[in-house]
Amino acid sequence: MGQICCKCGKTDSEEKIVEGFCLSCYALEFPLIISFPEKQLNITACKVCSDLMYHSKWRQVIDSPADIIHEILDGFVKKAKKAKGTKLMVVSDFGDPPFDIASKHLLKIIFEGSPNAEVPPYQQEMDLNLIINIGVCERCAKFNRGYFESIVQVRSDQRDINEDEQRFISELIKTKKEENFGGNRMAYIAKFEDQTRGGIDLYIGSENFAKNIAHYLAENLAASIEYSTKLKSVKDGKPVYLSTYCIRVPYFEVGDVVEYQHESHQIIRFVFGRIELFNLKTRDHKTLSHKESHPDNLIIIKKKVNLPKFIIMALQPPNVSLMNSGSFETIDINSQFIFEDHSDGDEIIMADLPNGLFECFDI
Ligand SMILES: [Zn+2]
Ligand SMILES: [Zn+2]
Predict the structure, then answer these.
(1) How far is the CA of 77 from the centre of ligand 1 (A)?
(2) Residue 182 has pLDDT above 70, yes or no
(3) pTM for the structure as a whole
(4) Alpha-carbon separation of residue 144 from 138, 147, 190 (angstroms)
(5) Domain 257-360 belongs to what architecture?
(6) Ion ligand 2: residue ranges with CB closer than 5 A
(7) Residue 359 has pLDDT above 90, yes or no
């Protein structure tokens, strides 16, 4: 005699019978999902930055919040009591949830699997409420309170930081701000202050980000870094320190004449913190390494603003007659000390050095 489903009475000629149930009744008798870890999926969204929190852990939303919600849902399903090998197949679309007001979304989730090798895989649909609460994440709360762990200062001791430098520094900071700093949620700039005498103060949320930005600025500005730390407060019996990174921009600027390895050079430009030099005597260009571009290796001889101007009175190689634009004194020198392609009447700037006059670039 054939087998009969103990539930609906179907015979094995109508449908396969496994463990006393026809396949249709089997699927109902042995659900794939026995229980979810929680009755509903509770998520909190930060109303400031839209990041999402699940079980006290904040997750950064980079592209779409739906991706993060799916990730959280995967973790949720992993913890569900379920038949071995059960897979999540489809989740109903919940669109882009609003982040300014709490919302509830009914998710319909389809699972597929089979607890028994004799039973072909079947599907089960489950309802799950997704609750999105609205809050403010710790980072945004700290940011709003102006919290910072570290200050990065950009300074120059003997001169003001000029407008070009200030602009360049702002660009560098912008680049760093746009980098997703290893997902560090405290990598923010709480306050940005332009100092009146030139220079910048940055108040930064995380010590690590401050260190990173300080080294990046120093490298690009051919500057040195001074680090200091002081006790700010005591929290839960533990000392809280405030660190300061002072980036000292060198006294020299583009256009200045410096001594490098006992020879006179003009600084042509800074290329990502590497200094390009022009040898006044040999007229060779040389770009120093990052390490060599340190202020310790260059001695300033003349600031560009102090280089005298001359007017070419008569260019008759091998000689040239020059008149100092300030003192109106005239002087004859060998024409090899000025650049080619000049003609009478041109105004040029020159460095007046112990070994003679050398034309410099007016940059
Ligand atoms: Zn049945
Ligand atoms: Zn936030």
Answers:
(1) 29
(2) no
(3) 0.62
(4) 10, 7, 8
(5) Beta Barrel (2.40)
(6) 46, 48-49, 137, 140
(7) yes
